[in-house]
Structure formats: structure tokens, C-alpha cells
Amino acid sequence: MTFLKLDHVTKRYGAAAALDNASLEIEAGEVHALMGENGAGKSTLIKVLAGVVRPDDCSLHIDGSKVPLEGPDDAARQGFRFIHQELNIVPHLSVAENIVMAQAYPRRFGLAVDWRRVHDKAGAALERLDVDHIDTRRKTARLSTGDQMLVKIAATLVSSDAHPARLYVMDEPTAALTGQECDKLFAVIEGLKQSGASVLFVSHRMNEVMQNCDRVTIYRDGRTIETSRIAETSRERIIEAMTGRAIRDTYPARTGTPAREMFCTVEKLRTKHVDGLEFSLKRGEILGVAGLAESGQSEVLHAFLGDEKPLSGAVTFQDKQTLPSAPSVAWKRRIAYVPRERRREGLMLRRSIVDNAVLPHLGQLGSARIFSSRRKERIHTGAIAERVRLKYSRLGQPCYQLSGGNQQKVVFSRALGKTPELLLLDEPTRGVDVGAKFDIYTLVRGLSAAGSTTIMTSSDLPELIGMCDRILVMRDHRQHAIVETDGLTPARLLQMFYE
Amino acid sequence: MRKLMKSMAVTLASALMLAAGAQAAEKVAVITPYLAQPGTQFYLEGFQAAAGEKGWDVNVIDTAGDVAAVISRIEDAVNQNVDAIVINVDPTQVAAGLEVAKQAEIPVIGMDSGADALLVTNVTSNGYAMAAETATYIADRIGGKGNVVMFVFDPFPPVQIRGVIADAVFGNFPDIEVIDRVTPDVQDGGIADSRAKMEAILAAHPEKGSIAAVWAAWDQPALGALQAIEDAGRADEGIVITGIDANPQAREAIAAGGNFEASVAQDFVGIGTATADAVARTLAGETIKERAIYVPAKLVTAANVDGQ
Amino acid sequence: MLSLVRRFGTLIGFCAIIVFFWMQLPETFLTPRNMLNISQQISMLAVVAFTMTIVMVMGDFDLSVGSMASLAGVAAAIVFSNDYPIYAGVAAALAVGAVGGLFNGFLVSYIGILPFVATLGTLTMFSGGAFLVSGGKTIFGRDIPSGFSGFARSGISLEWLGLQPLHLPYLTILAVAVLILVWIGLEHTPYGRRLYAIGGNYEAARLAGVKVRILRMSAFALTGLGAATAGLMYASRVASANPTQGSGLMLDAIAAVFLGMTMSEEGEPRVFATLVGVLILGVLDNGLTQMSVDSYVREVLVGAIVVLAVASSSIGKQRA
Q1: Inside any domain, residue B20
Q2: Do strands A167-171 and A80-83 pair parallel, antiparallel, or not at all (unpaired)?
Q3: How many CB atoms lie within 10 A of CB C181?
Q4: A398: domain range?
Q5: Which residues of B touch C288 (CB under 8 A)?
Q6: Is the pLDDT of residue B16 over 60?
Q7: B37 and B158, same structural domain?
Q8: Of B24 and A387, which is predicted with more confidence?
Q9: Mean pLDDT on A337-346
Q10: Which ranges in B232-287 belong to alpha helices (H)?
Q11: Averaged over A402-418, what is the pLDDT?
């Protein structure tokens, strides 16, 4: 039975249409996937549903009768709940406060906050999710990303009884989660579904959609392309609908065999956060780093960036150098880094594409060693933008105007400013659409063929296996194993995280 | 935004109307960094009253403590071609502005500002005369005989001259001995340290009648000395205390009828009035010969303290 | 329309103010003499505001510039009064500025104290220092060499322009020199571009190989140096030094940078925009004085205009 019917949604920003007569139908009690490349209009549609963006045209029917949608209050009245891509939790407040925050705090004598009831309420919400390992008194900042997501979901459950939740909108909820945490989330989603609520699920991860959703609607360039039952469609068809072109959901082929020349050797390296690292890298090799969430993968990269001081052990590069002492030194030695959190660690969002791309190379792009040359910087950035297939309107455009995938390409442009000797990639395809992912894979392959060594982390196991020559498995912040990817399956790799 | 701009223009225009007077009147700018201080307000009261009678268009400009801004505002007033400028700030610090005024032949008159060749004249109280008033009061009260403690402050010229006069007066009485000439620490206003110094002096001269009087170059040390004497239980020895300036706290002490017997009040309102007269004489084309015009100060004692 | 207001509202407002004064004071406002007067009157505020822009580019503040200006002036005067030559006093003041600024930078960048708190602390320290070395007194008269105070009273003759009695004040020339130096430094060298990057995203800049700590400290040192320069200019103009004379500069300088920030698309401080901010404050002071507007009304108006400018730019931003 159709619960929600949204038609003729149009939203223009100037000449560009973010949504162009788009539509969406959701049945009661279903998990409905919304897919599309970055910039296809998914985020705008969610904002329209939430009442925070006012569309130029739109009609909303709930249970067959037309209802207004003019502000966040209307959305709340219809029982819409939102879980956003960026976790909007308040890190220094307790779990309980984050869960209860949106509601009036329970009070004693109408005055003092009744903390016991706050915790009871929060505890009850977590219980409904079958979560019992989170203490409601802890500071939210201390939880793992996955647990923070659960807290966020719990918060939507504590809604007022006047408008019970009927639709949960989850915008890329799994982007920051490990496989284990994802499983937990899908169990919760299943529970919500059983209770009669619907879920609108936005994700770039094909596997999750295929395994957990009932139907999928695909957007492209602000228009609805198709809605189909998952059981009646295929990955290839979805990708084709999303991109408008046929891209295989696989990885570009290796273009050459890795050289035999040694790049560096790591002997018994211990830092503050990781221990027991022992491996060697060949020039042009791509090494993956895998493990359960927060097992020290990022810290391995940080050590090579000079941001994680070695306590004992040794790393020797073929030119007799040791680990860089600071990021500034690393960049000078052509060790380039693409950070995990693009918005927090990667970009200056309000600054231009050029400013972001040339930052580590400012010294070399100047004239007379003192002055900057905007002309040289633009030429440099323009050339790289073409190489990474960046979509932009002008090079002076501030980065916040770009879609997630294109933002990531700006970060890559920075790393490629000088052909890197060593490329450090921390979750390089997180929150990036299929088309941009393929571009990034192609780039990394090309660099590898040209002799750049790469170390990358990813929580997408097929991606690691598809891209890397070998995978370093981390467990409890220690090196657990190092395996060749030839013949490795995601299931086997996952097993190594636990065994 | 257009609406905002319009309302801004209206505000500006009404501000203009508030301030702009008759066009034909003579324009006088009064520029001071010290408008918030009570003394300055009395000067202005006197000046404004006199100026009102003469029908001048007076513009009072306060730079809120900023001395360099006084120079800027003098430049502005010169540019606006006012007929005369009155300043209430040390002229050596605003010499740059005074030179601009001189070039434009606009007269600048000091209102208790200090002497300077670039001023037409400076209207002020006579520091020598004020010190003479209190020193002779003490000499008279103790019958020209006894030990006197002096509180002075030589680093500040206007106060230093007061001490010189008191030295001369006491030196002229063979039976008066100045047993201590104290320079108190003025960081906290002068009361606390003067009190501490006085306590030490009292301890050094424990016999009754061994100190006949305390002469202070301004009120704060006198108040400190008074506290020390009262606390030491020696209020009934008849030690005579005098100050200068007659600030409200001093007036209260004098009115109470204790040891603090006299101070000297500058006639602030009178200085304002006299400044207006000096401006009027200048505007009339007279060349004023005196570098300083003195306005008499009044001795304040228990007899007249209430009438002030 | 709205975006135009957001971008150019402050500039339009500035032009409106000029036109308004020009109409009200047709004979005395838009004259070469008055323009030169204004340029000289704002020169000290301008130098402080330009160099304040350097730290504000990184999203930081320096509240200590006013008391640093006082301290530097007093330091120079003390050196003069001990019969050292002028250059020694100037060098001492600038050294005090650089060292004080480095100290600010050290607290902010290496110790990790919020700039607001750190410079609030040093504001009090510098101010106390100025009282300490001067003994709380104003140093003036023979202690200040005439060569030093003469600097603020003279300039380059404008005879060649046919403006015979006028001269281009040295103070103005100095402010323009600082403006050009800061402009080149901030916008045309890798150094300045890196400061902007730090302001854009500190962590991202660090991970992209920018030496954030030392740069941040150096920027505070430059601001301190600018404050000391302004302190010397002030002391020269009033031919004296007093431990509180610079204290008015800090708030005006921050207000000027904020006014300027309303003019850039992404709300970033730019030194030429700061110049417009300084000009607005200076022109208002000059014009309203000439119109005989009461000093207190003047202050209310100046404050209201700052609020209006910032409000119009943020209203525009919310709607867009």
C-alpha cells in the first residue's frame, strides 16, 4: 500500500535545476533505496522532505490525501525522522543527552532536569534497538563512529508520541561504519520495518542495497529514472541507470607488473598507537591496510606522513632516509596524503579549487622564490583537474559548492601536484559516487604504473582486494598478517579480522 | 537595504538638526579628551552659560581620553573654519594641531590646559596662591610654632609648585619645623600609601603634641593622614590637616569638624566663564598680553563648606 | 539584488557617506586639504588594522595591540629620555613589539591557549609594563627629541601639484607603505596564502604540509610589530608617550577588519577591504565633527553603522 507519494518536485538554484519534476513513492513497511551519483538530487530531495528547503513546485500525498510540506514542523507532524550523513551529535554531551536533546527534558517540579528519567528514557530507546553495550552516561565523543550512529538513531525513536515515526530517512548511514556495525544497523532497520515504519535508505554501496532493500528509486540529473523491485533488477542495470553509461562495477586492470626495485623496509616499528609493523614495499606497489574499525589502519598512514612519531624500530627508504619528522617534511619528500575526513582534514571548503589544490606546492609554483604566481597556479590546477576529471564551473569556485565526489577529486589534485613517491590514501572512496570511484581507481592504477608506491585503507573489502597487490591486516593496533590479494575473497579477508 | 539606507540618512539628518545652530553665529569648538571627568563638566557649564549669552554656536567635542584624536579634531575644526578653538588638554601634546590652527590664524585658548606659546592664553587657577592659602592657614592655626608634616609630589609640575610655596611659608616662621617631607605612592590614588606613611610618622613621634599639623599638596594624602590619626586614637591632640582641591570626600571630612580643617576649591565654573571672556576679547580683536589668566580659588573650611 | 547588497553593501554605504558629507559640507569636505587631514588622522588606526588583518586571516584575534602600542611608545620615550639617538628609541620600540607579538604567538600556537584569552592576558601584561617603565606618568617636553615629533608634523611638499601650502604627511606615506607590504605579503606570497589556508581549515593545512605552528606564531609577531609601529606614530604625533594612549586602537581596528570582511564573498579578511573599513571610521569621525554633531551621537552613529554593515551582509547570506 502506498504510504507516501511525492510528485512534481522541482527546485532550481539560479539556472541549474537540482530537482526537475522528480517523484518518489514509498510503501508502508518497506526499505526503499534512493540511489544516484553525487549531484543527482538525492540530498536536495531529503532536504525538501525535511522541510528545510522549499521547492519551487511539489505535491505530497500521505495515505492518499494531500498534505502541506512547508517547514520542518510539517515534516515532524507526518512522522518523518532524519538521520544525516554528517553525524550531528554534540560530542561533549552524554549519550543520554544526545538522545533526549530534541525533546523537552523531563523535569522535577517543572524546574530542575530529572536526570534519572533522562537516562531511563535514553536507555529505553537504546533497548528498542537491542543495544545494551552503550552506557548512557558516557560522553558521546568517546564512542566509536558506529555507536554514535546508533545513538543518533535512538534519538529519532524518542520522538513525541503525538506524531509517531512513520518514515526514517537515512542519508548514507553506513559511510562511516565497519562491516560489523553495518550488520547491527541492518538488524535495527529490519526491526523498524517490522514495527510498520518505512525506511528511505540512501547509499552508494551496491551490496547493502541489494541485500537489505525492497525497492530502489534511481535519480539522475534531478530526474527520476526508474523505480524497481530489487528482486527484479540487477547491479548492472542500476549502475547503468545511475550513470547513463555502462560502467562495470569492477576495478581497472593492472597496466603493468610492479617493478622489483625496493622502495622501503619497515622493521619492528612501534609508535604510540601501532606496534609490530614489519614489511617491505616495492616501487609501484599498492598496499592495502585493513581491519575492524579503529584497529590502527589510519595510524599506519600517519606514521609515514610524519604525524605519528616512531618509538622504536626502523623504517629505511631506498635513499637511506628514515620516516619524515612532520607532514611538512613528508610533502617535501613527495609523500602525498589523502585524509580520511575530507571536510575536516582535507579541504578548506570556503576557499577555491586552486587554493586547495596548490597548497603544498605553493613554494614551487611561485616566481623569484618570494612571490606567488596566480597564473602558474591556475595552469597547474587546470591541467590536474582535467587529469582527475574534475567537474567544476570555474577554478576560483569555492569547494563547498562541489559534490562529495568532486571534493574528493580536489583532494586528489593536491596529492598529484607533484608526482608522488609515496601516496597515502585513507578511505579514498568514502561517500563518493560510482563514476567518481572508477575515476579514482584509474588514477591510482596509473600512478602505480608510473612508479608511485601507494598505501591505502578502506572499509570496502572488495575494493581493497580489487585494487591492492597485498593487504596488511591490523588487529588491536598490531600487525596481524600480510597477504597477497591473488585469489583472496572478501569473506576470507573478513575472517582474518576475527581469527 | 534601500529602506535601511533611507533610515540611516534620516538618522544622520536629525543628528545634524540637533547640533546645527544659527548659521551666522560665531562658531567655537571646545575640544577635550576628559569630558567624562567632573571638573571638566563644571568648566563647560560656566563656558556654555557665557557663550549662550553671547549667542555663539558652540560645538563640544570629546575624544574619550584619546589625545591624538584631539589633534585630529583640531584639524577638522580648522578645516571647518571655526572662529575660535578652546582646548582642555596639555598643549605640548597637541602641538601638531596648534600649529595647523596658527597657520590658519584661528585663535586657540586654553581652559586650564597649561601654558604654551601656541595658545592665545590659558585660563586657570593660580597654584602658587592655592598653596599659600593653606600654608598660611596652618601657620596661623598653630600660632607659628610646632612640627609640621608635608605631603608633596614633585614629579608632577602643577603639584610641585604647591610644595615650593608651602616650603617658603613654613621657612619664614623660625619656630615651625618641617619634620618630614613625604612623597606618597600615587598608584592607588594616594590615600592608602599616605595613611601608611603617616602611621609610621605617628609611631616615630608618640608624644602628644609632637605633631602640630599636616600640610598636603592635594586632598588624598590629607584624607590618608586623617585616617591614620583617627585610628591611632590621636584625634584629640588638635593636629591640623589641610588639603587642596576640595574634592567631595574632603568636603565631607571638613564638614564633620575633625582634624581635616581646610582645603582650597578651584572655581571651575569661574574658569569656564573666564575662558568665554577671553574668547570674546580675542574675537573682538584684542591682543591678550597675559600668557595665563588666573581665576581666584576659595579656601574651604567648616564655616563655608555647606554653602558651596 | 540581494547578493549585490551582500557583496557591495559596505562599499555602497561608504560612497553614500561620502556623498552625504559632500552635500552637507560642499566647501570643506571634499577638499585636498581635508583628504590629506583624514589620511593623516587615520594613519595609526590603519597600521594597526592592516597588521591585525594578518592574524584575523587565520581566524585569530589580537586584543593586545592597543596596550602594545602604548608600551612601544613609552619604551621609545624612555630610551630618548636617556639621551640615546632617535634610531635607538625606534629600534627599541619595534623590538618590544616583535618580542611581545612572538610571545602572543607562542602562547597561542605552542601552548595552545585561545587567542582571545591569551591576548587578553598579554593586554594586561603590556599595559602593566607600560605603567611600570613610565612610572605611570606622561613622558613629554624635552624628553622627546624634536626630530622624532617633527616626523608626524611634516611630509613631502605638494608644490608640484600646485597645492602649495599642503604636504603629503609622512604618517600617511608610512601607512600606505604598510598597506602595500601587508597586501603583497598576504595575497602574493606563499607565506600569506598559507595563512589563509590555516584560516580555512587548520587541520587540513597542517596535514597538507603547512608548518602551521611557526606560521601562526610569526603572524602574531607581525601584528605586534604593526602595533609598535602605530605606537611610535602616535607618540610622534602627540610628542609624548603615556601608558594608556594606544588603548583606543584595538576595538576600532577589529571593527575596521569586520567592516572589511563584509565585502568579501566568503567573509574573509582582505587588507584592502580593511582599508575601506578604516576609511569609513575615519571619514565618519571627520565629517560628523565638521557638521558639529555631538560626540556622543557620533559614537552611537558609528557603532550603528558597523552593526548595519555586518547585518546587511549576513541577512543577504541567509537568504541566498
Answers
A1: no
A2: parallel
A3: 15
A4: 350-418
A5: 15
A6: no
A7: no
A8: A387
A9: 90
A10: 248-255, 268-283
A11: 90
Burial class (CB in 10 A: 0-12, 13-18, 19+), A346: buried
Work out the minimum CA distance from C276 to partner chain A, whole angstroms: 22
Is A357 in CB contact (< 8 Å) with chain C?
Answer: no
User: Please, which residues have CB within 8 angstroms of residue A234's CB and are 6 or more apart in sequence?
Assistant: none
- Write out chain C residues lying below 8 Å of B19, CB-based: 291-294, 297
> How far B308 CA lies from chain C's nearest CA (Å)?
30
Show me where the domains of chain C are located: 37-245
pLDDT of residue A159: 62
**Placement of cell 596529492 in the chain:** A415
Q: Do C268 and A371 touch (CB under 8 A)?
A: no
- Mean pLDDT, rounded, for A114-128: 82
> What residue numbers bound the domain in which B197 lies?
127-265
C204 to chain A, minimum CA–CA distance in Å?
Answer: 4
**Three-state helix/strand/coil letters over A255-320:** CCCCCCCEEEEEEEEEECCCECEEEEEECCCEEEEECCCCCCHHHHHHHHHCCCCEEEEEEEECCC
Q: Would you say C229 and C277 are in contact if contact means Cβ atoms under 8 Å apart? A: no
Residue A180 and residue A34 share a domain: yes
Identify the residue among B32, B40, B76 best suited for mutation to test binding to C, counting C beta carbons within 10 A and taking the highest.
Answer: B76
Which segments of chain B are extended strands (E)? 27-32, 57-62, 84-87, 108-111, 122-124, 146-151, 176-182, 213-216, 240-242, 260-265, 292-294, 298-301
Residue A10 forms beta bridges with which residues?
Answer: A57
pLDDT at A63 over 50: yes
Confidence of residue B53 (pLDDT cuts 50, 70, 90): very high
The neighbour count for residue A350, using CB atoms within 10 Å, is 17
How far apart (Å, rounded) are the C-alpha atoms in residues A259 and A263?
Answer: 10
CATH of the domain at B38: 3.40.50.2300
> Span C37-245: which CATH code?
1.10.3470.10
| Same-domain status, B223 and B180 | yes
Instruction: Look at B34 and B178; give whichever has higher pLDDT.
Output: B178
What region does A320 belong to: left with phi over 0, alpha with psi -120 to 50, or beta? Answer: left
State which of A179, A208, A243 marks the end of a domain. Answer: A243
Nearest residue, CB atoms, B79 vs list C33, C294, C297:
C33
- B155 half-sphere exposure, CB direction, 13 A CA radius: 12
Predicted confidence at residue A196, as pLDDT, reads 85
Residues 385-404 of chain A with CB under 8 A from chain C are 398
List all residues of chain B from 60 to 119 with a beta carbon under 8 Å from chain C: 60-69, 71-73, 75-77, 79-81, 90, 92-96, 99, 103
The domain total for chain A is: 3
Residues A230, A270, single domain; the answer is no
Residue percentage of chain A with pLDDT more than 90: 32
- pLDDT tens profile B133-148: 999 999 999 999 999 9
Check if the beta carbon of residue A287 is closer than 8 Å to that of residue A471: yes
Residue A457 neighbours by CB under 8 Å, 6+ apart? A288, A289, A290, A297, A298, A300, A301, A340, A425, A426, A427
Nearest to B73 among C40, C289, C301 (CB): C289
Residue B132 Cα, gap to closest chain C Cα (Å): 26
Q: Which residue of C has its CA nearest to A375?
A: C188
Inspect the interface and report whether the beta carbons of B92 and C33 lie closer than 8 Å.
Answer: no
CA distance A97 to chain C (A): 27
Could you give the CA distance from residue A366 to residue A363 in angstroms, rounded to a whole number? 6
Residues in chain A within 8 Å Cβ distance of C210: 328, 359-360
- Does some domain include residue A343? no
A28 and A176: one domain?
A: yes
Inform me whether the C-beta atom of residue C20 falls under 8 Å from chain B C-beta atoms.
yes
Is A201:A33 a contact under the CB 8 Å cutoff?
yes
Verdict on whether the full-model pTM lies above 0.80: no
* Contact: chain B with chain C (3+ CB pairs below 8 Å): yes
